[in-house]
Design brief:
The protein has 312 residues and is an alpha+beta fold. The protein contains ten helices and ten strands.
Length: 312
């Protein structure tokens, strides 16, 4: 949704000599996002802007752009470029006109079960690519899944991503609170620096519940089975077991990979009562799970980001 308050009122009106700033799309802890016109191509893009602190570079912002750029996957929002303009860093992203999954539910209400399962399957495709790049997103929630012009979902906001190899110029403190409480795995609340891929799986379980109910997920990990059934009794039989397994307290009791959860989602889709008598699709979904990457070649500007991150 387009915002009205702009905390960066004195920011330049054009970035990089080509991106003319338009409407404010949203604000967050890491900066502001504007709609912008690429005057070189005539394309509408999203421009994420963060003020450059006087004493240090915004490492997380730069690392986020680097991480998103090197993924280059159809289920991840594409970063088209990054630069500095005066006292600001900015990144250029593909413009996602469909809003977020949160916007979709707020405007249209909870989703039909088949639609929700389809969206979650595609979210897991993007998450699979994230994990294959040795990243843990650590902030999977409906707000961070955007829809393109055709309604397909893409993951965004890698500002809290953890590098499993530890190749980032900062360390997450043990007592540092990261992620949104309703979608945050219990182990991430205790020690976000050690949160693994199963923490992202927990977030996807919460997203599925939100799409179906329109409500923030409760602390499923703390519930006994009887209490969990009271919270999900209205869902068709194939669905509650998926949410339950994804949101278990012990990470080892959850789905261990995005692919494992996606396969369960596909099987549940075929088992829905409203699909009785229809041709099964699960096998085809599972075969098509690993979408071919748009490109394995890193964009040319990525080297400049590495230089900034290294302090060059």
């Amino acid at each position: 949704m387009v915002g009205t308050w702009d905390p960066f009122e004195d920011r330049p009106t054009t970035f990089g000599g080509r991106y003319r700033v338009g409407a404010l799309l949203g604000t967050g802890g890491s900066g502001c996002v504007y709609q912008a016109l690429d005057t070189h191509t005539g394309e509408q893009v999203a421009l994420k802007v963060v003020e450059k602190p006087a004493t240090r570079k915004p490492l997380r912002f730069l690392a986020e752009a680097r991480d998103m750029a090197r993924l280059r996957h159809p289920r991840v929002v594409r970063v088209k470029g990054l630069g500095r303009e005066g006292g600001y860093y900015y990144s250029v992203l593909e413009l996602m006109r469909g809003g977020s999954l949160k916007d979709r539910v707020e405007s249209q209400g909870p989703m039909p079960v088949p639609e929700a399962l389809g969206y979650v399957f595609m979210v897991l495709q993007g998450l699979h690519a994230v994990h294959a790049a040795s990243l843990v997103h650590r902030d999977i929630k409906p707000h961070n899944v955007l829809l393109d012009d055709d309604g397909f979902p893409k993951l965004t906001d890698f500002g809290l991503a953890r590098h499993e190899a530890g190749d980032v110029p900062w360390r997450t403190r043990t007592n540092e609170s990261l992620g949104s409480p309703a979608y945050r795995a219990p182990e991430q609340s205790v020690n976000p620096a050690a949160a693994g891929r199963e923490a992202d799986i927990y977030g996807v379980g919460g997203v599925l519940y939100y799409l179906l109910s329109g409500r923030r997920p409760p602390a499923f990990y703390a519930m006994r089975d009887a209490e969990f059934l009271q919270q999900t009794f209205w869902l068709p039989e194939p669905v509650p077991p998926i949410i339950r397994k994804a949101t278990r307290a012990d990470p080892e009791d959850r789905y261990r990979t995005a692919f494992e959860m996606a396969a369960a989602v596909a099987r549940a889709y075929d088992a829905l009562p409203e699909r009785a008598g229809e041709s099964p699709v699960a096998d085809q979904w599972i075969r098509d799970f690993e979408i071919v990457e748009a490109s394995k070649r890193a964009p040319s500007w990525l080297g400049r980001v590495r230089s900034w991150l290294s302090g060059a």
